[in-house]
């Protein structure tokens, strides 16, 4: 029976040895996996650092652009206000011109007969002036070049 005890001790020792070897193989595989995971995490950390740096720079540029846009927007607002003021002034000018035009048209309608009479009188005056100029021209042209005096032949009263 003692042999059985030795055999069982030997079997137990063999089982323990197999357990230790399989545990060592498993731990070695886990070690390789953890080393690979550590390398991956380190590479990922480097990439995240690069992304963080680029994101920070992009954020600073975005803030600068936002400030620039706000400044330009403020300047543009003053231009828009000025244009709005010009538009208001032009509208007021158009209203004033419309009122003046209406007033002139109304006055012309009210004074239509008087205007017609003035036009008639002015036509008469122009005709008189033209006639006067024509007569004056005829008179001055006769004096510049007077008709030569011709001596008439003596008339015989017998021939009549």
Q: Notable features of this structure?
A:
single chain, 160 residues, mainly alpha, 0% strand
Overall pLDDT level? 87
Low-confidence stretches: none
Largest beta-sheet characterization: none
Could you say which overall geometry the principal axes of the C-alpha atoms support?
rod-shaped
Structural class: mainly alpha
Number of strands: 0
Number of separate helices: 2
Helix proportion range: over 70%
Distance between the termini: 211 Å
Rg estimate, integer Å: 62 Å
Give the helices and strands as they follow along the chain.
HH
* Strand percent estimate: under 5%
Describe this structure as you would to a colleague.
- This protein is mainly alpha-helical.
- The chain contains two helices and no strands.
- The protein has helices at 2-110, 112-144.
Present the secondary structure layout.
Blueprint: H1 2-110, H2 112-144
What's this, in brief?
With 160 residues, this protein is mainly alpha-helical.
């Amino acid at each position: 029976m003692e042999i059985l005890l030795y055999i069982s001790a030997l079997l137990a020792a063999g089982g323990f040895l197999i357990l230790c070897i399989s545990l060592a193989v498993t731990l070695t595989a886990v070690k390789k996996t953890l080393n690979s995971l550590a390398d991956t995490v380190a590479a990922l950390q480097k990439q995240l650092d690069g992304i963080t740096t680029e994101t920070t720079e992009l954020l600073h540029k975005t803030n600068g652009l936002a400030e620039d846009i706000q400044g330009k927007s403020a300047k543009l607002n003053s231009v828009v206000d000025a244009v709005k003021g010009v538009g208001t002034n032009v509208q007021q000018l158009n209203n004033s011109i419309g009122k003046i035009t209406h007033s002139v048209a109304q006055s012309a309608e009210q004074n239509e007969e008087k205007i017609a009479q003035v036009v008639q009188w002015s036509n008469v005056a122009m005709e008189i002036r033209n006639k006067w100029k024509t007569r004056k021209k005829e008179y001055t042209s006769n004096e510049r070049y007077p008709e030569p005096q011709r001596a008439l032949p003596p008339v015989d009263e017998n021939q009549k």
